[in-house]
Structures are given as C-alpha cells and as structure tokens.
Amino acid sequence: MKQILCFFLISLLLFSCSGKTQISKDFDCSRDFFSSTEKITDMKKLFSVEFPKKWKTNLYFDSGQSSIYGADTTKQLTKSVLLDVSFIQQSVFFDDNFKLNLEREKLSESLIRIKSKNQNFNKRESYYALSIGKKGNYKYQVLDYFIKVNNQSFLHAKTQVYGDSLVNERLCEAIQLIEKIKFQ
Questions:
Q1: Interval 25-52: pLDDT, tens
Q2: CA-CA distance, 166 to 81, in Å (whole number)?
Q3: Diameter of the chain by CA atoms?
Q4: Among 7-16, 50-59, 125-134, 148-157, whose mean pLDDT is lowest?
Q5: Are residues 52 and 37 in contact, defined by beta-carbon separation less than 8 angstroms?
Q6: Considering the chain, what percentage of its residues have pLDDT values greater than 70?
Q7: What do you get for the CA distance between the two ends of the chain, in Å?
Q8: I want to staple 127 with a disulfide (CB 3.0 to 4.6 A). Which of 25, 50, 94, 155 is the partner?
Q9: pLDDT band for position 153 (cuts 50, 70, 90)
Q10: What 8-state DSSP symbol labels residue 112?
C-alpha cells in the first residue's frame, strides 16, 4: 500500500510540474497573476494574446508585421509591465549572427544582456534574452522573446519593466501572458 501511495504522489508531482514552460522555470515563475483576462486578436488575425481587462491595449499593422501592445496604465511606470507582441513576416534563424545583431542593437540602446537561452515554445524553436540598462532616472529590464512560427515568420514579445521593485514578479506576469499566445 505504501508503494502505491508513494508512486501516486511522485506521479502527481511530476505531472503538476510538467505544465510549466521552460522560460517559467528559468525565471522561477510559480503563481498565477491574472484572474480576469480578455482575448485580443491582432488586426491580421494571425495570433491572439490574453491581456488583463483593465490594461490599455493598442493594435498596429503594416505590410510586414502585426502588433498588440498592452500595459497597465492604472499603475506607476515603476510598478507596471509593458508588453509588445509582434508577428513579423520574415524568416529567422537563432544562430550566432542573429544573437550578435541583437546584442549590437541592445548595446546601441545602452542595454547589457544578462541572460539568454535557446529553447522551445509549444514545440516551436525560440530564443530569449534579458537585458538591463537605465533610461532617464530609471533602471529597467527588457525581456525579448522570439518564437519561430514557421519558415516565413516569427513572433517577437518584448517586455519592459522599469524600476527595481518586484522586477522578477513583473517579468513573470509578462511571461504568463506570453505563454497564452495562440497562433491562428
């Protein structure tokens, strides 16, 4: 009887932990942040994101991309999360050249990469890079998360977190929203 109970508990632990994505594990995200969200679909109907109902959202599109931008404008900048999700119609390879170009871009914005990793997002090749810097009087962090959708397009989810209060918690809020992205 003890063996069956032990087996059941181990199985329960394994299955409950397996629902977390790799990026959630990397940032030690362990709780749900939002109870009331709404599904926002981009203008080209290529993807959707769930944002909290109280967040302000904006949609944008042009011939090469379609974007959804969201932020909680009811909070101060140093307590909020800014999330911009863009579907970009261009091929991408997460090779050394891609990473070098991203590093150059971040350095031109006075950002320094502190963490990066190749991984999978729902069986799709992905790459993230976390950078830190200072803008005006504020320290800030930028999490760039790239997901290869297919050979002709990718998704770029860019999170900005200003200040130094509850930074990882706010990054986890954004990661929770990114994990709910659905492709049409």
A1: 999 998 888 889 999 999 999 999 999 9
A2: 11
A3: 64
A4: 7-16
A5: yes
A6: 89
A7: 48
A8: 94
A9: very high
A10: E
Angle of CA points 79, 42, 46, to nearest 5°: 125
pTM of the model: 0.87
**Structure tokens given for 82:** 């800014």
User: Residue 67 corresponds to which tokens in the numbers above?
Assistant: 């974007």
Question: Please, what are the domains in the chain?
Answer: 21-183 (3.40.1000.10)
Tokens linked to 110:
């006075």
Burial class of 126 by CB neighbour count within 10 A (0 to 12, 13 to 18, 19+)? buried
Distance in angstroms (rounded) separating the CA atoms of residues 148 and 89 = 10
CA distances from 20 to 15, 25, 115, 182 (A): 10, 7, 19, 16
For the stretch 102-148, pLDDT in tens is 999 999 999 999 999 999 999 999 999 999 999 989 999 999 999 99
Tokens at 39, concatenated: 């599904």
d(CA 3, CA 106): 54
